[in-house]
Amino acid sequence: MKDGYWGNYLSGDIFLIDEHEMWIRRENNADKLGIPQAVQKKFKNFAVKEDRDRLLPFIFANAPVMRFRGHGPYITMEFNCADWTKPLELVHKWCKANAGPLSGLNIVNFATNEVIETTWENFERDKQRRIKFPG
Asked: Residue 115: inside a domain, yes or no?
């Protein structure tokens, strides 16, 4: 799988997208995703394509959103939130709909500088056992 998604971990909304930066800048997509207007106004401070690697972390730090990107056998999920609860609920929702048991998960939290590397099967098992995740 090589698809990309944006998700809002407070609303639970998930959107299949083409490219993360271009999708968020297009039409009213940032509104649909739940990005506050004050944050959207600052998008203009980031040059299109040239500042992509600065824009995405800015968005993570200022809105309750995360991105998903498939890299073949594994999926990377990135967000910025001190409390892991809601982001991991969104990971669970997305994986239930899209991941196979052996899909690798690379879950990156920029707020805590922690990473969970696991498979969907193990993530689901650990969640059911109520093992505490980082955070």
From this structure: yes
Overall domain count for the chain: 1
What is the per-residue pLDDT for 92?
Answer: 93
Closest C-alpha among 113, 37, 40, 32 to residue 78: 113
Residue ranges in 73-134 assigned as alpha helix (H): 85-98, 120-128
Neighbours of 133 (CB within 10 A): 17
HSE value, Cβ hemisphere, 13 Å, CA-based, for 108 = 13
- The boundaries of the domain holding residue 19 are 4-128
Decide if 134 is inside a domain: no
Q: What is the mean pLDDT of each run of 10 residues along the chain (135 residues)?
A: 92 97 97 98 98 97 97 96 94 95 96 95 78 53
